[in-house]
Each structure stands twice: as C-alpha cells, then as structure tokens.
Amino acid sequence: MNKPSAVLSVERPLTVEKAKAEERIDTSPESVRLIFSFIACSAFWLVFGTLVGEYLGLKFVWPELDTISWLSFGRLRPVHTNVVFWGFLSQGMLALALYVVPRTSQRELFSYRLGWSSLGLMNLSVVLGVIALMAGINNGAQEYREFIWPIFALFALGLILVAYNLYKTIADRNVKEIYISNWYILAACLWTIILVLVAYLPGYQQDGISQTVIQGYYMHQGVGQWFTPMVLGLTYYFLPKLLNRPIYSYSLGVLAFWTQMVFYTMIGSHHFVFSPIPWWIQTVAIVFSVGMIVPVTAGTGNFLLTMRGKWRSIARSYSLPFILVGVIFYAIVSYQGTLEAFRSLNKVWHFTNFTIAHSHMSLYGFVAFLIWGGVYGLIPRMTGNEPPQFAVGAHFWLALIGVLVYSIPLMVGGTLQGLSWIAGESFIESVTLMQPYWVWRAVGGTMMFISHLIFAYNVWKMRPGNRIETAESTNS
Amino acid sequence: MKLNFHKNHKLLFGVVFWGFVFLSLIIAVFPALWVQQENEPLPASEPITELERKGMKVFINEGCVYCHTQQVRPIAMDENWGRPSAPGDYARINRPSVWRQTPAVLGSARTGPDLTSIGKRQPSAVWHYMHLYNPRSVVKESIMPSYPWLFKIVENPSKDATVVSMPGEYGPSNGKIIATEKAEALVAYLQSLKQVSMDAEASAAQKAKADSIAAQAAKKKIDGATIYANNCASCHQSDGQGVEGVFPPMAGDPVVTAEDPTDHIRIVLYGLQGVPIEGTEYQGIMQPFGEMMSDEEVAAVINHERTSWGNDAPTVTAEDVAKVRNNDELNKIQAEE
C-alpha cells in the first residue's frame, strides 16, 4: 500500500482523514474473509453470465452457431439474465453492504455464520437454477422469476438471513443516528423479500392475465427496488468516504428515499402499456413514471454536487471514475425510462431492441459500475493488496466504451425497427435491418466481456493473504 | 425523539416494510385478484385440448416467448396482427402445476413476429415442421434457432409417423426426419392460436366504432408487394421460387401466368391442396385468404404475382375478384365438373 503510484500518488483521500460518522474500527479477519468470498463468487458469476450473454449476442449474427438444446437461445437467455441478477450483481452489492452496515453502525456484523449461510444458499440457488433452465425447466417463462419456486426459495431464504443479519447489526449500533446508507440498504432487502413473496405466492395470479399484473409489478421492481436502492445506499457511503468530504445534502437523500419508495412501486405496469391489463393501472404507472424525476434528480444532483470541485481527486483515484460513470448512467437511464413510458414513445420503442439497450445501460452502466467503484475503493484497503493500476484502467475503459458500443447501436436500430413497423413494412424487414446493429452489439459485448476477465484477475490480485500492516489502518 | 426516523430503527424500518406491503396490495395483489375474478373466456373460444396444452409447455420451456409476443395492441401499427387483444383471449390459460406458474405468453419483445393469430396466418402443419427443423429452409433471412431435438432421424419410419421432408441442403444425408411427440404438440398449439370474435352481438356503438376502423383500414395504402411478403412469401418465397416438393413456385406457374385469371383468383380466395402442377406433387396446403383480405387486397397481391419474377400476365381489378367471390356456387360446380 505504500508503493508510490502515478495515479494514486500523494493524496489518497480515504487514508488522509476520516469522514463524518465513520469512527474506524479495525476490520476483523472474519469480515475480510466473508466479504471477499462474496466478491469472488460475484466475479465468477460475472464472467460466467456475460460469457453466456456474449454467446447469445453472437447467435443474432450466426443463428446456426450450434443446434444443441441446452445451448439454444430460448434456454440460455434466462440463464444470462438470472445469473447476472442473482449471481453477479446481488452478491457483489451484498459484499459491500456487509462492510458498510457494520462500519456505519460502528460494530461488528451481527453474525458471520448467518453471513456464510446466505452466501451458500444464494449460490446453491443460482447453480441449480442454471441447470434447470438449461434443461428446459422454468417458471412459466416469467421474466426474472424463471427459477421454479423450490430453487428460488433457497435464494429468498439467503436474502431473509441477510436482512435479519443487517437489521440486528443496525439495531445494536453504537451511534445514535441510522446513517442514510443503511436506510437504503436494509430497505432494499425488506422490499425485495416482499416482492419475491408477492411474485411467487399463489392464489391471485392463477388464471388468464392476472399473472401479467403481478409480472409488471415484479419485473420492474426486481430491478428498481433491489439494485437501485442498494447501490444508491452504497454510494452514499463510498462517495463521501473516497472523496473525504461529507455528502452535499443529507435531506435530499431522505427525500429521494421516500419518493423512491412511493413512486417506484406504482410504475411496474409501464412494461405493459397498450396490453389488455386494466387501462387505469397503465395510466397510474405512466403518471408515477413522471414522478420518478423527483428521486432521480435529487439523487444524482446530490452525488454530483458532492463531487463538485473534486474532479482532480476523481481523476487521481482508480475507484471514483467508476462511481462517476455509475451516477451519470443512473440519471440517463432513469430519464430514458420515463420517456419510454409515454404512450407516444412507447409505441415506437416497445417490443424493439431499444429495451435491450435500456436494460444494459441500467444494470451495467449504472449498477455494475457503482459496485466496481465500491470494490476497488474497499478491497485493497481491507486486504492490503492493490490490483495493478494498468489493469484497473483497462477494465474501466473497456467496460465503458464496450457498453456504449453495445447500447447506442441498439437504440438506433430499435428506433428503426419501431418506425419500420409503423410504416407497415413486411415484418422480415425489421429483422434484416437490425443485422449491422447486432454486429456492433457483438463488438461492444466482446469488449465488455474482456473487461470482466480483467476484473476477475484484479479480484485475484486483491485477495487476502500476506496482509501488509500499513499506516492505512492506524492513520484513521 | 421516539418519532424520529433517524434514531428509531423500529419506526423507520416498520414504515418501510408495512408501507411497501400496503403499496404492493393496492397496485399489484388486489388488481390481480380483481382481474382473476373477472376472468372469463370469450363465448366463441374453444377449450384448450390436451395436445395443445402439451404444445404450450414446449413453447414455454424452449423460451419462445422471449422473441414472440402474443398481444395485439389497440394501435394502428398492430392491425396487421389482428384485432386488439382482450383479457378474454387469455382466459383459458391457467397454472399448469404446483411447480410452475401460469405461462407468460404475452411476451415482451418482437424479435420474431407476433403469434396471436399464427394459426390463421399459417395453418399448414408441413410449413411449421419445416420451419421448426430449420427456419431458414422456408424463410431465408430468419434468425430463429433450429430445433432439431424436437425431431428424430430414422431409417424406416413407421406408418403412422409424421415424416418431414426437407429440401436437399437442409435435410440429413441419410434417413428420414420424423416429428417427435413434442414437435407434434407444439405444432398443434401453434395451429390453435387464432383470435375468435369478441362476442356474438355487437352493440350499436361498437359497430359504429368497428365501421370507422374498417373505413380507416380501407384508406390505408394497399401494396401488393407488402401483402405478398406478409402472407405468401413464407411458403412461395420472396423470390417466387417456392420450396421444392412442398410449396409450388409462382414464377412461370401455369395458373399465375394464364390469360384467364379466374383460377388464380379462386385459389387465393378458397385455397388449394393435393393438385399436381405440371406433373409435380406438392405436400403443402394452401389456405383460403377470402375471409382475411378485401377484393382490393386480393387484386393487388395477384397483380404483384402476375408481374414479378419474370411473369408477364394480364392484371386484374377488384371487380374481377368480386365477380369470382360472388359466384361462389357457380365456381364450385365448375370445379367439380
């Protein structure tokens, strides 16, 4: 850690001075082991899940790549989405949450045993889920709830244990106030538990399109009430910590929190605009989609104002650029989502590849980048082992340029698809016109995939062991 | 102090938890329950057969819904696919077992065409088998996966087996392709996908609305090439060459190039099967288009066929089509003679 480096040279904010409410407690070896294990699993699922994604992308260009049932598009697509959801992103952000919650509560995690159980249950669920999906066993092809309930119950149990563990940690905190990060992080866990129960319980979604009403609610919030609040909560910790400056406005964070909870919950059915589900549900969803401008503007504004004037520190750090990109993507995809909900624009973009671009910009540009920022900000300081600076830079630029090369052509192509349908051209036109854009998608996807291999290498380089006791821990 | 979100974790997370439960009930659970109670099949619809149900399961397990929608939106651009979908269209779909939830057939992407009325648009089982075995054998530009695992290659197929004959390059070098039970079920399911009429007696207001939609549709530009691409090209191919032994070519076909267009009009209106053309037998079944197309549309597509791919036959008018259509009985008698 004492090695001089070009990028992180003189001023390394985290080690210089502590931020408000962050009494440093020495990180126990147990917590290092648990957190690093979550990160390692997450990195594994990232590589696996995006290898599958890359392969799927190539199938648009070469549909005859293989004719094996287990590798067919319809079976692998849910493997890709579920692995990056429940394997990569969920475990990556939980790793960071398992650090942030005890740290801001100024105590150890309530139970490491429960932490290990959660990790085991979640990974077991993803492994079994992948096998089942490839064998052609799914839960009615309901997006993001494709794992049949006996398999997803394992994940849900892991999630309940995490929520209990974090709640107990917060309840016995050694500070009076509950730091805003913990609002977001524990709320994400609680909301997702309810979400999963509503998604899987029988009784009200048996016949006809009643399941579509639940699907709108679930598929939307599976993203937005799990990943969004969790990574925002993490950013409320890592951004001020790494910049060594308090968050611009605590109250804006609180405003964004409550509006997120009320507005976001109501808008799931905007995935089914013009569908046969009741028209009033669609209209409510569209109205509240506009309401989302409030929490999004409050959140991104807050983060950007915190960064104001600190651009040099961001440029010097190898973790902060990831956070900057994540915050910018958060704003872009959220406003984009509001636009997509309007009936006039939905007409053009719904059912097209524009949606694919949108989902990758949100889960990748926004969520994954914020997680990576946290991982690079935290792990070297826990284990004392830094990743090679060049490799972190390569990860950053390949991932960023990759996701842009991936999504911009899909947005252009998706718009042309919609216009082709509106013009009443024969359907196959909308397939052939996409060919060049699918090639670009494959190019961008390849860059993203290479960056993930580099990330996995960096995680390996940051692994605990040979821990050098440095001034870092005593300094703060 | 007690009522402070920042200091009282029970209060904070209690509100977060129960507030979300409340919101979930009003935006998801209760509306779903209400939709489920209102669930009623359309009077004209038929119950799903056991075989079709099996086919739906194959459709779901193979993830067909990730590229194919089954919902027609009430907007002009979706008119090609049928009338706007109604809740009743899906009313007979329910939870298949305790392990799996009700299938999500509405879909969320249209990488491939909407399948709401595929059974009407493409009723030919032969076409579906070929298309599933290798989509590019019938639609050259298709990017759909092939599903060879729904078929078996055997040396001597039994008498009651469904044999699928593929044109040269797409078939196996040895043996015959036969459809497995899964393929048969899937094709039965696809053939069953047809919109039925909303109800028997439309109210005056609905009728007026339907009339205005029909009037609007009539104003839409009628283009023979587009009609051909949407309705005919999947069998007769966009280059008019057909598929050897299954679907006859349009280019140079004796009926298409005949001076007298009556037979051509009749076949488009009423369909045809089992008639050898210039000594060649064709397996495919031509469906009737009389119900789906107006006289203007039939005339446009016939003229496209008569003047493309080197064909140069006299064109027809909507009046010619109307004459054949209105002479239904006469035509049949002539045909029998």
TrEMBL record, chain A:
Biological processes per GO annotation: aerobic respiration; electron transport coupled proton transport; respiratory electron transport chain
PROSITE patterns attached to this UniProt entry: COX1
Source species, domain of life: Bacteria
One Gene Ontology CC term in the entry: membrane
InterPro entries to which the protein is assigned, alphabetical: Cyt_c_oxase-like_su1_dom, Cyt_c_oxase-like_su1_sf, Cyt_C_Oxase_1
Keyword field contains Kinase: no
Residue stretches making up the Cytochrome oxidase subunit I profile domain: 34-476
Any one GO molecular function term: cytochrome-c oxidase activity
Keyword terms of this UniProt record: Electron transport, Membrane, Respiratory chain, Transmembrane, Transmembrane helix, Transport
Keyword Transmembrane set for record: yes
Transmembrane regions: 34-56, 83-102, 114-135, 147-167, 179-203, 223-240, 247-267, 279-305, 317-336, 356-378, 390-412, 438-460
PANTHER family recorded: CYTOCHROME C OXIDASE SUBUNIT 1, CYTOCHROME C OXIDASE SUBUNIT 1 HOMOLOG, BACTEROID
Protein name: Cytochrome c oxidase cbb3-type subunit 1
Top-level taxonomy: Bacteria, Pseudomonadati, Balneolota, Balneolia, Balneolales
TrEMBL record, chain B:
Gene Ontology MF term list: electron transfer activity; heme binding; metal ion binding
Transmembrane segments: 12-34
Upper classification of the organism: Bacteria, Pseudomonadati, Balneolota, Balneolia, Balneolales
Database matches in SUPFAM superfamilies: Cytochrome c (SSF46626)
Domain Cytochrome c: start-end pairs: 50-194, 219-309
Protein name (record): Cytochrome c oxidase cbb3-type subunit 2
The keyword Iron is assigned to this record: yes
Alphabetic keyword roster: Heme, Iron, Membrane, Metal-binding, Transmembrane, Transmembrane helix
Source taxon at top rank: Bacteria
